[in-house]
Amino acid sequence: MSTTEHKPDVGCLKVSSKSSPASVAGAIAGMVKDGVSVEIQAVGAGAVNQAVKAIAISRGFLSPIGIEIACVPSFADIVIDGEYRTAIRFAVDPRYTRGVGTSVSDERRDSLSDL
Predict the structure, then answer these.
(1) Alpha-carbon gap, residue 9 to 40, rounded angstroms
(2) Which domains, and CATH codes, for the chain?
(3) How far apart are CA 7 and CA 108, in angstroms?
(4) Taking burial as the number of CB atoms within 10 A of a residue's CB, which of 12, 68, 81, 93 is the most buried?
(5) What is the 8-class DSSP label of residue 44?
(6) Per-10-residue mean pLDDT for the chain, 115 residues long?
């Protein structure tokens, strides 16, 4: 008999320089509330700018209900139209306050606690 480990769902949001930060923030907040780990991917300075603004705005949506978020940036090599590009990925995970339960994987929580 084998057991399978349940991994939390991960939603990947791709942000462009033309993305609305408020709309992306709403998506981030909704996913975090639903217990889904969020990854945001951006290619280029304008897209990274919109992504960072969205993360800040989503924090404003979540903080009043007792959910703080942590953001961990990383690089990702991706292929767009046959060309290799470097993307910035932001892993956004909840850090609950006010007694709300957690749904963050142990591995990700351990990596966030080192910050």
Answers:
(1) 14
(2) 12-96 (3.30.110.20)
(3) 11
(4) 93
(5) S
(6) 49 94 96 92 97 97 94 95 96 74 49 47
Model confidence, pTM? 0.75
Q: Phi first, then psi: give them for residue 48, nearest 5 degrees.
A: -65, -40
- Joined together, the tokens standing for residue 6 give 């349940």
Name the phi and psi angles at 79, rounded to 5: -115, 125
For 103, the token pair is 């749904």
């709309």: which residue's tokens? 23
What span, in angstroms and rounded, lies between the C-alpha atoms of 38 and 25?
A: 11
Q: Estimate to the nearest angstrom the gap between the alpha carbon of 93 and the chain centroid.
A: 6
Q: pLDDT at position 96, please?
A: 64
CA dihedral 102, 55, 46, 14 (to 10 degrees): 40
pLDDT of residue 11: 76
